[in-house]
Specification:
The complex is a heterodimer of chains A (about 280) and B (about 250). Chain A has about 280 residues and is an all-alpha fold. Chain A folds into 2 domains: about 35 residues; about 230 residues, Orthogonal Bundle (MetI-like fold). In chain A, about 75% of the residues lie in helices and about 0% in strands. In chain A, strand 1 and strand 2 form a beta hairpin. The longest helix of chain A has about 35 residues. Chain B has a domain of about 170 residues: Rossmann fold. In chain B, the strands form 2 sheets. Chain B has a 6-stranded mixed sheet, with helices on both faces. Chain B has a 4-stranded antiparallel sheet with strand order 2-1-4-5, covered by helices on one side. In chain B, a hairpin with a 2-residue loop joins strand 1 and strand 2. Chain B is globular and about 55 Å long. Classes of the chains: A mainly alpha (about 280), B alpha/beta (about 250). Chains A and B meet through helix 7 and helix 8 of A and helix 2 and helix 3 of B.
Chain lengths: ~280, ~250
């Protein structure tokens, strides 16, 4: 059967529109539902008080701090290693057996379920290195988990920088390192930042691996060695154990708002930097 | 002239893996001349230019035999400082290639990388001087902080020339610098080049024979990696000795 080109054009357009609208509808449905359920119970105290009575009362301040610290540790540790690996793969070596092994390893790491990272973190950081359930153990485990994402996105971003940029750098008497930092990075930055934002999202949303490595303590953390409970874990425990659905939704609402804020702020920073050159 | 040539190319062979791009080429380039190397695409002209500042090193599988002497010094000697060489032998590419930064930072790039100039006021002076020499200063003097990407194609290419001039080079290589530009921009760049040849040695791959006629002191015709003919621009272009040269000039092939 032959379809008239104009008809096939219309059908294609319809399907593409449908797909796009469906995605938006699902996204907005979830966000609206959680915000509608969560926001009515919100108060200023919910943000500033630590949880009381297992989270039935009080706020979630300690879990916000815990989330931010675990994520910060993970991103601060994983970013230099991830970008470093990407720079090695793209700038300092040619396609070879070694690069294929590195890339294959990174891809395999990306496919491992987070609970396995949790188990590894528990055995290695918590028990073997005796870091205990702590922000540090949780952050280190998350760092390993997000490393493949940062490597892949950075590698992709660096690879798309035109070779001409590098040649211009070299032709103007720059060394290899100067060429990479001053002609390749500025162009690759938005892509690299995108990978970091994705990684932040994964850290903030992670539950299984964090419970096993950072614990689920409700106290306000006092150091990197304090155990803590992240917001996602708090939400999970509140809902799973039927402690307080109201507070669970409120936590989820704050979590969504937090992720949104992190994205906006990060994008603003990147755009401000990139805007200088465009 | 009893002066020794600025650049001496001796028995140069150049290969990309097994493919030979330059065949046993010898050529002298004297100081302050404009040499135009012309010929059809794939004749090895770009490769030849890139061997003069060793940008050809960057291509994987590239290999050379023979010597290139700059002021009598072999630039392929093991102890040569390649970044210093590239500062002395600047290059302008066939497409305008501003870096994603401001106009000022583009011109200041080279001096900053090689720490040529450290004082801020000296750097501003250098940028202004370079932009003036490239005939771009009046276009951009009020907006040095704006991104270089916002300039027109012709302005971008003059910016790239200014960027090379800021390195205080001795030789400037230009690889079909006007191929992406309109005739007005091309004329501006040709004017600048003529003035610049008083101070610099210029090697250019023109984007056509007419351009070679307009600006070159000497020309060289290359075909399939061979240097066919080399000599005074007027003589070679008006009365070529080799049939292949005259065929190309009169447009019978290429």
């Amino acid at each position: 059967m032959k379809i008239n080109p104009r008809t096939s054009q219309k059908i294609a357009k319809f399907i593409i529109w449908l797909a796009a609208i469906l995605v938006l509808v699902v996204l907005f449905a979830i966000i609206t539902y959680i915000l509608a359920k969560g926001i009515p119970h919100l108060s200023f105290g919910f943000l500033t008080e630590i949880p009381r009575n297992m989270g039935r009362e009080g706020g979630i301040s300690s879990t916000i701090v815990g989330t931010l610290l675990v994520t910060a540790v993970a991103v601060i540790i994983a970013t230099p290693f991830g970008i470093g690996t990407a720079v090695y793969l793209t700038e300092y070596t040619r396609e070879s057996r070694v690069t294929r092994i590195i890339r294959f390893s990174a891809e395999s790491l990306a496919g491992i379920p987070s609970i396995v990272y949790g188990l590894f973190g528990f055995i290695f950081f918590v028990t073997y290195l005796k870091l205990g359930w702590s922000i540090l153990s949780g952050g280190l485990t998350m760092a390993i988990m997000i490393l493949p994402t940062i490597i892949r996105t950075s590698e992709e971003a660096i690879r798309t920088v035109p070779n001409l940029n590098r040649e211009v750098g070299y032709s103007l008497g720059a060394t290899k390192w100067q060429t990479i930092t001053s002609t390749v990075f500025p162009s690759a930055l938005p892509g690299i930042a995108n990978g970091i934002i994705l990684s932040i999202g994964r850290c903030v949303a992670e539950t299984a691996a964090v419970i096993m490595t950072a614990g689920s303590a409700l106290r306000m953390p006092t150091s990197m060695f304090s155990p803590t409970r992240t917001m996602a874990v708090h939400f999970y425990i509140l809902a799973r154990e039927g402690i307080s659905m109201e507070n669970a939704y409120s936590t989820a609402a704050i979590l969504i708002i937090l992720i949104f804020l992190i994205n906006v702020v990060f994008n603003m920073l990147v755009n401000r930097f990139v805007a200088k050159g465009r | 002239m009893d002066q020794q040539p600025k650049i001496i190319i001796k028995d140069l062979n150049f290969y990309y893996n097994k493919k030979q791009a330059i065949k046993n080429l010898s050529l002298d380039i004297s100081k302050n001349e404009i040499l135009a190397i012309f010929g059809p695409a794939n004749s090895g002209i770009t490769t030849l230019l890139r061997t003069l500042n060793r940008l050809s090193d960057l291509t994987y599988g590239a290999r050379h035999e023979g010597d290139v002497l700059l002021d009598g010094e072999n630039i392929y000697a093991p102890d040569i400082n390649v970044t210093e060489l590239r500062r002395r032998v600047g290059m302008v590419f066939d497409v305008p290639a501003p870096l994603p930064m401001s106009i000022f930072d583009n011109v200041a790039f080279g001096p900053r990388m090689s720490s040529l100039i450290n004082k801020k006021s000296d750097l501003s002076d250098k940028v202004e001087q370079s932009l003036r020499m490239a005939a771009l200063w009046d276009d951009v003097k009020d907006r040095l902080d704006t991104p270089a990407m916002r300039l027109s194609g012709g302005q971008q290419q003059r910016l790239c020339i200014a960027r090379v001039l800021a390195l205080e080079p001795e030789v400037i290589l230009l690889d079909r610098p006007c191929s992406a530009l309109d005739p007005v921009s091309t004329a501006k760049i040709e004017d600048s080049l003529k003035r610049l040849s008083e101070q610099f040695t210029i090697v250019i791959a023109p984007h056509n024979v007419q351009q070679a006629t307009r600006i070159a002191d000497n020309v060289a015709f290359m075909l399939m990696g061979d240097l066919i003919e080399h000599g005074d621009a007027f003589e070679v272009l008006s009365n070529p000795k080799d049939k292949r040269t005259s065929d190309y000039i009169t447009g019978r092939f290429g």
